[in-house]
Amino acid sequence: xxxxxxxxxxxxxxxxxxxxxxxxxxxxxxxxxxxxxxxxxxxxxxxxxxxxxxxxxxxxxxxxxxxxxxxxxxxxxxxxxxxxxxxxxxxxxxxxxxxxxxxxxxxxxxxxxxxxxxxxxxxxxxxxxxxxxxxxxxxxxxxxxxxxxxxxxxxxxxxxxxxxxxxxxxxxxx
Length: 174
Fold this sequence. Notes:
Layout: E1 2-3, H1 8-20, E2 25-32, E3 38-49, E4 55-64, H2 66-84, E5 90-92, E6 98-101, H3 103-109, H4 114-117, H5 128-145, E7 147-155, E8 162-170
Antiparallel strand pairs: 1-2, 2-3, 3-4, 5-6, 7-8
């Protein structure tokens, strides 16, 4: 295994800097296997010094963090997809507090800032005449089957005007 050529200078600089400052280090970098496979490794450790302040030895451990790095990269791609979607995409906690509304959703219902979303419950975005339907029909269907699809109306938060939409609601379970 060899440190990826694009990471060598950074790894050497971060390690040198940490040892010069007498700090522990945590450096993530790529390694190239003989097969050509690239994997992510985390190097964590610290230096031990003699009375003159020179590095006497370094104790470190390498850990394979490839799966975590892959998952992080996939999460970033997914977030970019949701953020750039032209569809209304929202997430709410089981008790109803809305904790995410993508930019297209905010535009559709007239919410200017993401922080405004966290102060509302999901049904605040529904037209008044659809709130009972949501509680009596959509929620029981979600609990029973984990998904509901159909027509309803959202409400523009500034004008109060209804916005007819076809929606899909589904449960995300840990």
